[in-house]
Amino acid sequence: MMELDALSRNVRVNDDFExxxxxxxxxxxxxxxxxxxxxxxxxxxFYSGQLSAIMGPSGAGKTSLLNILTxxxxxxxxxxxxxxxxxxxxSGHLEYTKKSCYILQDDNLPNLFxxxxxxxxxxxxKIANLTSKSKEFLxxxxxxxxxxxxxxNTRVQSxxxxxxxxxxxxxxLIDNPPIMFLDEPTTGLDSxxxxxxxxxxxxxxxxxRIIICTIxxxxxxxxxxxxxxxMMAKGRCVFQGASTNTVPFLSSVGxxxxxxxxPADFIMEVVSGEYGDYTDTLEKAAQEDKWKYVPxxxxxxxxxxxxxxxxxxxxxxxxxxxxxxxxRFLILLKRGAVQLYRDWTISQLxxxxxxxxxxxxxxxxxxxxxxxxxxxxxLGFLLCSLVYLSYTSMLPAVLKFPTELSxxxxxxxxxxxxxxxxxxxxxxxxxxxxVLFSFVYCVSSYFISDQPMELIRFLRVFLILIMACLSxxxxxxxxxxxxxxINGIFFGAVTLAMMLCVGGFLIIFTHxxxxxxxxxxxxxxxxxxxxxxxxxYGYHRGPLFCSEDEDYCQYLSPEMVLKxxxxxxxxxxxxxxxxxxTFILFRSIAFCTLRKRLxxx
Length: 601
Ligand SMILES: Nc1ncnc2c1ncn2[C@@H]1O[C@H](COP(=O)(O)OP(=O)(O)OP(=O)(O)O)[C@@H](O)[C@H]1O
What we know:
With 601 residues, the chain is α/β, with parallel strands linked by helices. The protein has helices at 4-7, 62-70, 93-99, 115-126, 132-145, 161-173, 191-206, 220-225, 246-252, 263-271, 279-286, 299-305, 325-342, 348-364, 375-413, 419-446, 455-482, 485-501, 514-519, 524-537, 558-564, 572-599; strands spanning 19-31, 34-47, 50-55, 77-84, 100-103, 179-182, 210-214, 228-233, 236-242. The chain binds adenosine-5'-triphosphate (ATP).
């Protein structure tokens, strides 16, 4: 176990990663039938201990290059990317992406947690061998260094843009990555937050990291803080050198920066074509070795010279143990529970709604459960219950992954946990919720609508409702991972309506053509309705109540009801088995589609 005093040592990142080098990198995408070259054979080198910026006009290919270097984009690429090390000569591409972190342009933070809680969760997910006191110390230290200590107990949703950006960085600093990639870390920040952000990155670079970020038009002072500028235009590299060499470089091709003009603005104006198309000329000039960036101080010397006041974990001796997936699973379960408790729209409000709708439907269909004259109204009640619960389970499920996808993608990519761990935690967490919501609805509607007062029948109805909810939410999850929320909700609503048509009530099974009858096998609503009918009218239930006001009760015998509905076979457990199968199938498909969606950039 790592001790507190070990942490308080001024330990820097390991020196396995001296530079990242890429050669002749090309990235192509098929757009309609044509092939679009987004990155066109670029090469370059980024060094540790240096702050490097990828710049260029909008659409130049900055984000695409960053995605390639991070390993976020893996298809459509050619060329070589190497990460060299003074100690290990064969430090491969895969190895460095595992040890790097990628901070995306969008912050992707869980809104309902405080800064400290986010940090502690990240710490628990990333580090196993630290006592809680050490973790506390580490978190406080990082927050202090990133000037976030005052916002420690503020929820993420109330943080300013700059604070969110710093928190995104702080979360990744917990396990002290030697390489950090940041996509437009200053976008949306005011000038003072931008300065703070770049100063922080500079400080982190001086601690021995390779820091590469994309950036839009910094002011002259900030521009000079970057050690290396990698300028892109039309997917090509038009300058790769020290920021202080920008003006001489442009002069060498006859482009003289006006006095008192910000060199960053000037080079951006040039590459944007304001002075004509200089892309070919600049690309050629940028090949010359004299402009290429070479650090003036070796990393080792930098470390000797600069006092890094950020305290981090010692990775040199590989003392950081990552937690087991089981521990991560438990942390994710806890995170889900806190989120559920704090988001009253998905917990308290839903519970109250289920209770009220249950009472409303119970009162609407009062006495229908035992009255022989109201058998068809009771069928209506059972169907309404299924439709209500299916829709209220499916629609939130359609939105579940689209709203969490960006956070999941970021955390999964940065090795916080495996997708299977996340999905297992979500599954385990989702089931009790569906059980609770079904229970609240079932209790509030079952007795008022006068269904049979037998515990076993109540439990059978309850079980079918749970399984219907789980099937519907599984179906919603698939839609949510396959398409965008608007289309997902549309397709979901239409499909449920179709399932309802062949559910066995609007047209009873014996009245369907054989082709239509086949459709009932793909409708979980029809199996659920059959199960409910069996639970309420099957299993040798005694005669129904017939009021004296009625001249004749056709459905005095419950068996008669089942027979006329074409549900006389005792199929309750077959229905349950079908619904279990649907549940497993839908969840498995949703997992595969989620994995596929995550792999897509
Ligand atoms: N998956 C894709 N399919 C087709 N074109 C793409 C794809 N990804 C990026 N592009 C195109 O490649 C070009 C470069 O995109 P990229 O996002 O890398 O630019 P950028 O320099 O980061 O721009 P910005 O500063 O506006 O974010 C753009 O024209 C973009 O439309």
